[in-house]
Amino acid sequence: INAEYGNGTICTMSRRNCPRLGLVCTPLDDINLARAKQISVSDIVYYSMSDAPSREAMQHERARAEEMGLSLSVVEGGPRMDQIVAGGPQREEQLAKFAQSVLDMGECGIKVLCYNFMHWGCRVGRTSYDVPVRGGALSSRFSVQEWDDTPVTDRVPSREAMWENLAVFLRAIVPVAETAGVMLAMHPDDPPLSELRGIQRVMNTVGDYERLLATHPSPHNGICFDVSLFGLMREPHQPSVPGLIRHFGDAIKFVHFRDVVGNKFEHVEVFHDEQGLSDHVHLSLIHI
Predict the structure, then answer these.
(1) Which of 204, 205, 216, 219 is deepest in the core (most CB within 10 A)?
(2) Strand pairing of 128-132 and 138-143?
(3) The whole model's pTM is what?
(4) What angle do CA 250, 251, 255 make, to 5 degrees?
(5) Cβ atoms within 10 Å, residue 199
(6) Which secondary-structure segment (H or E) carries 132?
(7) Which of 76, 74, 226, 102 lies closest to 169, judged by CA?
(8) What residues have CB less than 8 Å from 9, skipping those under 6 apart?
(9) How far apart are CA 33 and CA 23, in angstroms?
(10) What is the pLDDT of residues 154-174, one digit of tens each?
């Protein structure tokens, strides 16, 4: 199950490229921390799509995880950045807050920040959250046939303007991440489509990720490799998902183990073992 919708299985990459298994716990409480420990998870992700935790909250949650023998190693979602993405009038203020949050993460020993660059007018897209799958479980679906693609009324930037906004962000934040010892891990657009509701999206192809890394080369400018989304975005002539893992190599800082059936226009989320893909991905991660 993906992080946005419940307990999400993730993988963090250590400096020696040895994957560690982690979990998004929703809510992040003692019961779920105990369950994480019981199933041999080593790492916990602090997840919020609305804003980043304060330094005090990070310290508190890290101490609570450590009491269970777990490590709070990732913040997913990150500081609010709608003005950064859109190039709005409060961009500089948000950049300053984002930089401070990255420094706070470094001081708290939390070394991975998973974020995205989807416009806040339309971020994650789903058309259902109650699709029956194996064993009667309920899952999510995206279907362009069911999607309301009514354009948003706000002024939205062009694709190239979005890329310039991203370049501004990277110039400001990557040096801070280097100082703090924090790895930035960019999550793909979800679904990986170039436009939704009239809003351009810039992280939905393999080429987009190559451009991301080239825009500001740094070991701290990295990738969140969502297995399902990279599987959906790759073109037939491009490498397989395990091949893409080998292609991006050390740039992968964080992995979402998630699987779907379908294509980028019509797909349903399924269990990790449904197509056997996660096993191949795990072996690829070990050998990059």
Answers:
(1) 204
(2) antiparallel
(3) 0.91
(4) 95
(5) 22
(6) strand 128-132
(7) 102
(8) 1, 21, 22, 23, 256, 257, 258, 272
(9) 9
(10) 788 999 999 999 999 999 999
